[in-house]
Amino acid sequence: MLSLLFIFGCASTGNRIVSVEEYERGSQQAVSDLLRGRYRTLDNIGILRYRTEEMREELKRRYGIQHELDHSKSSDYVRGFNCIMRAGAKEKFGDEYYEKALQTVYPESQSQFGPLLRRSE
Question: What is the pLDDT of residues 51-65, one digit of tens each?
Fold first, then answer.
């Protein structure tokens, strides 16, 4: 499993991993979901940012990517899960899938600031 994490660039998330076991469990669950064609993101905190709900709805509408809030999952589990899930979504929908959804939800950023910058993973 660790080899998959390195291949997808997930082992270098920039965030300190406290529990490698939890990170791997989350990653394994994401692989299982992807193999079944289930695309989703996990959140264990529930923080909302400006237009968060609109972005979640656009990802669901455009790509079928669901969003789930689960307070029982650790941050490491969620990081591992979401990293693998992002890689799977990029493979299925293209590298720019997230940016395309952003452009739909935040059209004013195109006119005011030019093209949106790529998200760093």
Answer: 788 889 999 999 999
How would you classify residue 67: left for phi > 0, otherwise alpha for psi between -120 and 50, otherwise beta?
A: beta
d(Cα 48, Cα 38) in Å, to the nearest integer? 23
Nearest to 66 by CA among 100, 91, 39: 39
pLDDT exceeding 90 applies to what percent of the chain? Answer: 51
> Residue 14, SS3?
coil
DSSP 68: E
**What are the structural domain ranges in the chain?**
19-106
- DSSP letters, 41-110, are EEESS----TTHHHHHHHHHHHH--EEEE-TTS-HHHHHHHHHHHHHHHHHHH-TTHHHHHHHHH-THHH
Question: At 40, is the secondary structure helix, strand, or coil?
Answer: strand
Amino acid identity for residue 20 in this structure: V
